[in-house]
Amino acid sequence: MSIILSKEILSRSLEIVEKALSRQSPLLPLKNIHFESSSQSITLSATNMELQIKVILPYEGEYSGKALLPPQITEIVRLMPSTEISLDVDPENYQVNLTGGRTRYNLFGADPADFPAVEKLAPAEGETMSLDPAEFSQILKMVIFAASTEESRPAFNGVLFEFKEDRLSLICSDTYRLVVKNVSAAGWNFTPRRCLVPAKALRELLRILDQSEDKVLLYTDGKKMAFDLGSVYFAAALLNEKYPDISSVIPQRFSTRISLNRSEMEKSVVRAALLAEAPNYAINLFVGRDAMKVRVSSQVGRMEEELSIEGEGEEVDLYVNSRFIMDILRAAPAETLIVEFNGKNGPIVFRLPEDESYLYLVLPIKMD
Amino acid sequence: MKQRKAILLADAESFYASVEAAQNPSLRGKPVAVCGDPALRHGIVLAASREAKAYGVKAGQPAWECRRLCPEIIFIRPHMEKYLEYSLEMTRIFEQFTDRVVPYSIDEQFLDLSGCERLWGDPRETARRIIRQVWEKLGIRCRIGLGENPLQAKMACDRFAKKRADAFFELDSASYAAHVWPLPIGDLFGIGTRMELHLRRMAVRTIGHLARLPREIPARLWGVNGLLLWLNAHGIDYSSLEAGAAPPPKGVGHCATLPRDYAAPEEIETVLLELTEAVCFRARALGKMGTTVHVYCRGADFNHPSGFSRQKKLPEPAASGPEVYPTVRQLFRRHWDGRPVRAVGVSLSGLVNRRFYQLSLFNRREITDALSDAMDEIRERFGPTALFRAASLTSGGQLFTRARLIGGHER
Question: Are A302 and A275 in contact (CB under 8 A)?
């Protein structure tokens, strides 16, 4: 009995699921996509133990069976010449026939018995958070860039989800800078807990979020964090690493506080960064009362530029990694930014105007 | 017209042995070998006097072999500090003739006499004066090669001046081919035993054979290095003494040959810790921190080479034992095969400025820095063993032995 599916829908679903494939794995179930059809739906799932993705497509028809499909399936479907694809699975030997137009594939699928089941977590009462996908995507993008990609300290490869009663704090750092974003809503009541979600998984999630319109349900069992988008179920294994306490790092005072135009500063830093050199990509900021000088001096040459700002407090003259500054200037969703300085070796804190829920902290480059 | 360059390479004959003879005239005219303790395994010949060389004694031979070749040989223990002093003394003599003196090794120094003709006259005469002065002041025979570039000077010294009674030889672009091309290919500067073998297989037996190959052939086979060798065969060298004088170090490292084979991991780790401290000290002295650490271990059994050589990026740039050692130990524990070890080494590379660095949220570098600075100051004033780790007192410790050495030999 064949299933008839839209090529476009099947193709898009496979592209989502294959993000959880582990192509280099010696274990067949981890590099294959699990296919199952029942009388109400078709499910595609994949897992590499760190990530589980399951896509559920509504389908009315008869049972057709299940099988493990080879990873080539995504490309096969994408390159099919027709808009509809007919698919059937032989329950005896897991062979899969795919037909579209005058093209016919006979794929040697595998026994799905060894596939680690992708079961949805069952969240406790009141422990589910519901978010708008566009809003959640925006929040993640404001946070995730600060994660480290170096493997030497795995805790900093993650984003910390800190649940506390009516609030969720997202915390992300690579030890040189730190982002904190608080989200809260009436009616939330979480058991306090800290979950460290791999940034790598969240980057994959972001690509899916941007294509989704359904609400995101977010819940955890302490081992995995689940993001349920209705037709797509996405779960990431939490990092089992100790995350340092960040409360002592955020300064309560500042010596200088300015407000500046985000896009002006972005252009200026981009120009300065052309001369900044590895490994620190240092630029110099000289902050006065109503102007800030952006300067750079390297083996290539020198550059200086002045920006208008509104400031209060002491003058400050410091060095900072231009890439760290560029990251926040690109991610911040506001045209005016508040920046607080704490002397030449103290943290620089970026804030959004009239928004207490977000801060970006970056440490300068020490210069004796 | 472009000014003709006059580059000299001055080389001290049997340097360590000559210094010993200069210090103790009773050794003059006798077969002398400077050698570590003949009873220990680093008892190999470091230098042999001219008289000892006549018996076939060569640097690098073990003491027992040397005694077999020349039973009346006089063994002298090395005095590295003295040799360094003499080397500096030679530099001082050279600096009377030109401000452009570049030490190439402990016993070889380049001098640039270009443009000094009006001051000193013909460079050939100047070279002979230098040879005389070094002999009169220090009692050391030095040989000088003169060329239009460092390569020609080096070839003139190594291949000709050393064999001549007057200890001087000159090569220039016009005479280079006539003198150098008939020499066997292994005599060319830059050719090691492996490269010699490659070239001999291609029937390139003399320097002239290489010079007459189309330049594309060595360039295609060995890239830039091949091209460089071909240029060497033609006596062409574009390097200048100023530019190549002292390239900034890419890394700092220390290695130690152990007094006996170490099989206990605690003992090996003790030496690794000591080397880590020494390497960090040197990095700090250069005002640097390392971003990558490299650990090396060589197994004890020569017939079955074992050991490893691995590196790892540090979590953050560092130049202090407490920050670097955990990674060193991690590398050792992961890669050591458990077999006895004869030599170990630690090095730091990817050096970055220690006073200009990205601050970190969860690491108080100011504190470790202040501690390191204080330790450096104590060791500077009271000696390298004034402050040390307790582990250095355990059976594996090499700190006190190493503190008595320069370049692995006695002070």
Answer: yes
